[in-house]
């Protein structure tokens, strides 16, 4: 379980068909073999460590459902350590189970930060509501608007988020991982019954 508060940004040092290697001494030091770590919001299991680098196996299902398959050596990624029972819940409950990917449609400068319009896949649209939470590449963000006709939603990024995450590199066409809010998912399921 995660919170959507990014712990660090790092670079990929290995990206092959089934394994991802990420170089970050501070994160690697805290991880054990078998531990979970979120990479761009996707929960992965650490299978090997070598100095400041940790490695995770990535199965075909994960590559299909996420943007991890597009990562190359040198790609920047958001990292988050799992939530501990004694930690503050700063963002929202994030499982690290990416629902879909979406394309960034617009990036606009705002008075303080940026506003993004992101494609809203039909498969998760019923879980996305104004003022609700959504994880974008593992970042806990508040939905500012939903445009059903255009099939998009908007989020606002404050300067800290832009500086402390991979969001500084977002541009039109960037593919991002999306995870719907866990609470919204259960509410929708129970209402459907």
What does this 3D model show about the protein?
There is one protein chain. The protein has 193 residues and is α+β, with helices and mostly antiparallel strands. Helix content is 15%, strand content 41%. The chain has four helices and twelve strands; from the N terminus they run ββαβββαββββββαβα. The protein has helices spanning 25-30, 60-65, 159-164, 182-192, and strands at residues 8-15, 19-23, 36-39, 42-50, 53-57, 76-80, 100-110, 113-119, 133-136, 139-147, 152-157, 175-180. The strands form two sheets. The chain has a six-stranded antiparallel barrel. Strands 7-8-11-10-9-12 form a six-stranded antiparallel beta barrel. It is globular, with a radius of gyration of 16 Å. The chain starts with 7 loop residues before the first strand and ends with a helix. The relative contact order is 0.19. The model has no long low-confidence stretch (mean pLDDT 94).
């Amino acid at each position: 379980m995660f919170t959507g508060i990014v712990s660090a940004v790092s670079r990929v040092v290995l990206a092959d068909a089934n394994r991802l290697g990420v170089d970050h001494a501070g994160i690697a030091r805290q991880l054990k073999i078998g531990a979970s770590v979120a990479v761009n919001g996707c929960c992965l299991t650490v299978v090997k460590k070598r100095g400041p680098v940790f490695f995770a196996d990535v199965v075909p299902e994960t590559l299909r459902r996420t943007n991890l398959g597009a990562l190359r050596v040198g790609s920047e990624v958001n990292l988050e350590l799992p939530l501990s029972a004694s930690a503050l819940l700063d963002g929202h409950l994030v499982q690290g189970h990416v629902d879909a990917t979406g394309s960034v449609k617009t990036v606009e400068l705002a008075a303080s930060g940026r506003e993004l319009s992101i494609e809203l896949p039909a498969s998760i649209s019923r879980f996305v509501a104004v003022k609700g939470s959504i994880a974008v590449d593992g970042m806990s963000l508040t939905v500012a608007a939903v445009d059903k006709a255009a099939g998009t939603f908007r989020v606002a990024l404050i300067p800290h988020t832009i500086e402390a995450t991979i969001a500084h590199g977002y541009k039109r066409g960037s593919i991002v991982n999306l995870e719907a809010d866990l609470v919204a998912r259960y509410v929708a399921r129970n209402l459907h019954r």
